[in-house]
Design goal:
CATH superfamily of the largest domain: Glycogen Phosphorylase B
Largest sheet: 7 strands, parallel
Pfam families: Glycos_transf_N
Keywords: Cell membrane, Lipopolysaccharide biosynthesis, Membrane, Transferase, Transmembrane, Transmembrane helix
CATH topology of the largest domain: Rossmann fold
Structural class: alpha/beta
Helix content: 40-55%
Radius of gyration: 23 Å
Function: Involved in lipopolysaccharide (LPS) biosynthesis. Catalyzes the transfer of 3-deoxy-D-manno-octulosonate (Kdo) residue(s) from CMP-Kdo to lipid IV(A), the tetraacyldisaccharide-1,4'-bisphosphate precursor of lipid A.
EC number: 2.4.99.12
Oligomer: single chain
Strand order of the largest sheet: 3-2-1-4-5-6-7
Subcellular location: Cell membrane
Length: 428
Amino acid sequence: MIVIYHLIGIALLPLIVPGFALYAFFSRYKWKHLAQHFGRVPALSQDDRPILWLQALSAGEVQNAVPLLAKLSDKKPDLRIVVSVTTDSGYEMAKRKLKDIAECIFFHPLDILPFTAMALKRIRPNAYALMDTGFWPGILRQLRARNIPALLLNGRLSQRSLKRYQSLRGLSAGVLNCFSALYMQNQSGKDGLLQLGIDAEKIHLAGDLKFDTVEAVSATEAQRLRETYKFKDEALVWIAGSTHAGEEEIIANVFKNLKESFPTLTLILAPRRLERVDEVMALFKAKQIRTLLRSEFQRTGPMSYDAVILDTYGELAKTYAIGHVAFVGNSLVPPGGGHSLIEPAAQGLPVLHGPYIENFSDTADSLSRNQLAVAVQDPQGLEDTLRVLLQNFGQLAKNASSLLQQYKGASDTLALRIIETLERPSTD
């Protein structure tokens, strides 16, 4: 099967190369580093120090990798770390967060035999680690053929993905068994891999790295943020983060209804994709809600708005610190799947989410058991629950700090496992 996969990729090269080049032309970073996608990644000089190649698909995966790579750098100073990404946002985040840890940062080559073979020859890693998800069968097979350990870190497997993999069980199991070890976030992910026929001895529970990436914002920083937003002391703040199409209209309608009962209520909304900002702004204006973009603040007067749309990159996590209640999107409209609930919980906020949260169901259950998260089933449920929470917003926040401390530590665990892998004698 893998031979057919490689042959198809090679046969389609005359279409893939110009097609991808055209796509990259309109990208912020991909065009500048186009050759990397075709295998011409930075060539590393070879010495006695081990090399770890870590692949992080996008910004979220890079963010999750930061505490892990920091621990690795501290525990094994001679380790050479190189980081590849797939998206522009991932590249930007890696350049910002990992410039002092990674020897080089580049775009992962397309999973076509000539490109991946060239990249492996130029880097010659002692181990290859993949963050979260987004693996390619071609490079995994090459790693196994070269006896280079491949590790899945912070792995997760939703029920939807499990059903898709089960429909191609033979192929999926063959690819996943190319990993030397798979470190999963939770028990449901581990159980899913067992159902697919993955070797049980390869599967391990390591926790969720996301818990190690978030810290409570200090009172001083929170006050500075409130001053930036020009909030009055009595203002109530609802933060709706990582919203998707269909959810913003529900949120706008609920906000208008709540505003009648809570005149000081302000909404901060962060669409998951910044390219949708204009669309969301037009929706709010059509609803006659006084709305500003976060980037417009320098020319606005105090409280000249009722809602703010975050159109700046990387601010949402800290912004939760000035809220009283949060809603996390991609959960209220099917098919959904959810986004991480940890960031608002880390700031002590009660967190609302819809019923379509399967990608983060274990986290949602943990937060719910500790009275930090509430599931709502529909728009009316969202409005009714918000009314209760805005009247008693402090009641659910008291357990946030202790809960997060219980779940921290995945970065230490994974750092030790990676070092053990690197120090294990080769079986060549």
